[in-house]
Amino acid sequence: MGAHSRKCDWCGSGTPIVRDMEPVNTAFQYWCEDCARALIIKGDPIETYRELDGEPIYGRLLDAHCTLKRFYSFATA
């Protein structure tokens, strides 16, 4: 199943924009924009991630809402 046919693992309805490459719980790896924003605002950003659509949507969310910028990194592999 490709990333484009997936749904957000948290809300079950949104289209994922980001994948958590080191999830604490493997049931929650794919996040839509709204759920990813909520994670960041809560203070629990995804530390190692991969953008799914080639657009830096999650990176922009981090820049806009995250005060602990040292904790995240873009997965390149």
Largest β sheet strand count, sense and barrel closure: 4 strands, mixed
Major sheet strand order? 2-1-3-4
Shape by Cα distribution:
globular
Question: SSE order in H/E notation?
Answer: EEHEHE
What is the gyration radius calculated from CA atoms? 11 Å
pLDDT average, as an integer? 85
Q: For the record, give the distance between the C-alpha atoms at the N and C termini, rounded to a whole number.
A: 19 Å
How many strands?
Answer: 4
Low-pLDDT ranges = none
Structural class, by secondary structure, is alpha+beta
How does this model look, in words?
This protein is an alpha+beta fold. The chain has two helices and four strands. It has helices spanning 33-42, 57-65, and strands at 16-20, 30-32, 48-51, 73-74. A four-stranded mixed β-sheet has the order 2-1-3-4. The longest helix has 10 residues, at 33-42. It is globular and about 30 Å long. The mean pLDDT is 85.
Provide a compact summary of the structure.
This protein has 77 residues and is α+β, with helices and mostly antiparallel strands. It contains two helices and four strands, in the order ββαβαβ. Helices cover 25% and strands 18% of the residues.
